[in-house]
Prior knowledge:
It is found in: Membrane. 22% of the residues lie in helices and 23% in strands. The chain is of the alpha+beta class. The protein has 2 domains: 2-32 and 242-314; 80-238, no CATH class. The strands form 4 sheets. A 6-stranded antiparallel β-sheet has the order 3-4-5-6-12-7, with no helix packed on it. A 4-stranded antiparallel β-sheet has the order 9-8-10-11. A hairpin with a 4-residue loop joins strand 14 and strand 15 (276-277).
Amino acid sequence: MRQPRLSTTFFALLIQxxxxxxxxxxxxxxxxxxxxxxxxxxxxxxGVKYGCGHPGYRDLLYCVNDVLMFHISxxxxxxxxIDYTFQALTLHDPHLSTCNKIVLESRGNGFxxxxxxxxxxxxTPDNAFLLLGxxxxxxxxxxxxxxxxxPCRNISGLGCExxxxxxxxxxxxxxxxxxxxGLGPPECCAVAFDEVGSVQGINLTKLECQAYSSxxxxxxxxxxxxxxxxxxxxxxxxxxGHDAFCRSCxxxxxxxxxxxxxxxxxxxxxxxxxxxxxANCESTSVESMTANSAILRGSISxxxxxxxxxxxxxx
Length: 315
Ligand SMILES: *[C@@H]1O[C@H](CO)[C@@H](O)[C@H](O)[C@H]1NC(C)=O
Ligand SMILES: *[C@@H]1O[C@H](CO)[C@@H](O)[C@H](O)[C@H]1NC(C)=O
Ligand SMILES: *[C@@H]1O[C@H](CO)[C@@H](O)[C@H](O)[C@H]1NC(C)=O
Ligand SMILES: *[C@@H]1O[C@H](CO)[C@@H](O)[C@H](O)[C@H]1NC(C)=O
């Protein structure tokens, strides 16, 4: 009588083990999207893995050797910071001119995003783009000199008059050409993104500029001149009305993500412990067949547990 008892118990345990294993592995899924790149936290709406984050930010961030890179149509930028409270990213372009150096050899990236991404990313209104060495024919100076309404101005106290004081001008000298000498268009023109870039972005080729700088103001207090300005591009991210999906998902302990591709279409997804939902982890809108079978496995293993327990009771 002992032999069959042992084998049935063993058999029941075996079933339980094999059925429970995939389920317990599945639990690691929760929050598998949150990660780090160097010391920068990657969290919703961003992601560095396929399926993680909001689809508006897909194929945007790449972590290369602990350096977080931001990739858009105008090029690649290094991400210095992601400010989740103020919903802003700080970017650095190696071709960006600073107070110490005007980078002429390559035009620099400027800032141009893919049309579909425009609602999700835009430089902040207090970020000043300093466009340098733009030609007389630049769209910036359309109608110059008769047109006095140049877009150039000070943005949040950041402007070209101050920038001309930078040592970077030492070798080139803003007085050689341009408005400073009263002859032609200004050698530096500071603009806010919205005024020039909202349609086509800050495209240095299109604007016929040789170089650019970008400065932003974080604190309301004024800093003491262009040496102390923050050089980089401050970009606001905004998911607008789409946030409701993620809030509902996270409220049920899900992780927000997406599925699909540009060809098949992209849908937001709520990743729950063992399944994916198109709503949240308490809804019944099961996402996929694998999810269905996971639930099926769940009920079988409960049955097996009860059965195993039952065997013990009998013997
Ligand atoms: C990350 O580390 C760098 C130096 O390694 C530091 O300058 C920077 O402030 C850090 N960023 C954050 C968000 O902690
Ligand atoms: C849930 O979706 C993510 C992202 O698309 C995918 O990697 C994962 O395999 C899916 N899980 C299930 C159980 O379908
Ligand atoms: C910038 O403008 C040029 C000239 O119009 C165009 O060929 C190029 O594709 C634009 N760059 C981007 C990143 O849109
Ligand atoms: C911009 O600010 C500087 C001082 O920082 C001032 O001298 C200049 O007149 C201002 N320019 C414009 C166009 O307001």
